[in-house]
Amino acid sequence: MSGLQHIACDLCDLLIAAPTIEVGQCALCPRCKHKISRLRPNAFVSLFAYAVTGLVLLVLANSFGLMQFKLAGNVAQITLWQSASELYFDAYKILSVLVFLFTIFFPALVLLMIIMFLITIKTGIGKFYMTSLLRLIFTLIPWSMAEVFIVGIIVSLVKLVTIAQMHLGWSFWAYTAFAFCYLKVLSLVDRYQFWHWIEGWQHD
Ligand SMILES: [Zn+2]
Questions:
Q1: Residue 123 alpha carbon to ligand 1 centre in Å
Q2: Which of 15, 100, 152, 156 has a CB 3.0–4.6 Å from the CB of 84, allowing a cystine?
Q3: Which residues contact 47 (CB under 8 A, 6 or more apart)?
Q4: Domain boundaries in the chain?
């Protein structure tokens, strides 16, 4: 098996020979010192745990109210799903689809694909699509913006508390916890380590 010969630096695009590192070691780009890879000891288990927890939290975030407004005696509640769909009915159709894709669909898909990838590495089931799956994961990651959505909610809250009485629902906390798990997953996703796992698995 020829193996992974070269890898490009994410920051400066320098093509370098794939480093041979041991678990716990870190490889840096010789030109810009950007971290190329770090073989973490428990990356596999941690990734699986955070990805599954993230998906469960995302389902929970879609099951309750996101926030409640009280203004002049009127009470209104919005769910996570409505935060996107209401825009659709308010004639912001494209924005509505983008909010749905970036905050719910793509993050859910990335987590689901990472779980599928890890299961394939462990069991060998579905190995024929492994390379395509990995490419799709790395293509979609920049398009998932769960953390940006949380910041957006907080910014709008700061504005809204001045005109209405606000109450954050369970969905907000579930989504915040989901965003934390999602960021943990992203911090553990390592292009080189993923290929390294495929390599190891192909040699078994
Ligand atoms: Zn570099």
A1: 35
A2: 100
A3: 114, 118, 185, 188, 189
A4: 1-39, 42-203
Task: Determine the Cα–Cα distance for residues 120 and 186; give it in Å rounded to an integer.
Answer: 19
Phi–psi pair at 11, nearest 5 degrees: -90, -50
Measured in Å, residue 8 CA sits from the centre of ligand 1 at 8
Distance 13 CA to ligand 1 centre (A): 6
Domain covering 42-203: architecture: Up-down Bundle (1.20)
pLDDT single digits (tens) 106-119: 999 999 999 999 99
Model confidence, pTM: 0.80
Q: How far is the CA of 70 from the centre of ligand 1 (A)?
A: 52
Query: Which pLDDT tens digit goes with each residue over 64-106?
Result: 888 888 887 788 888 888 877 777 777 778 888 888 888 889 9
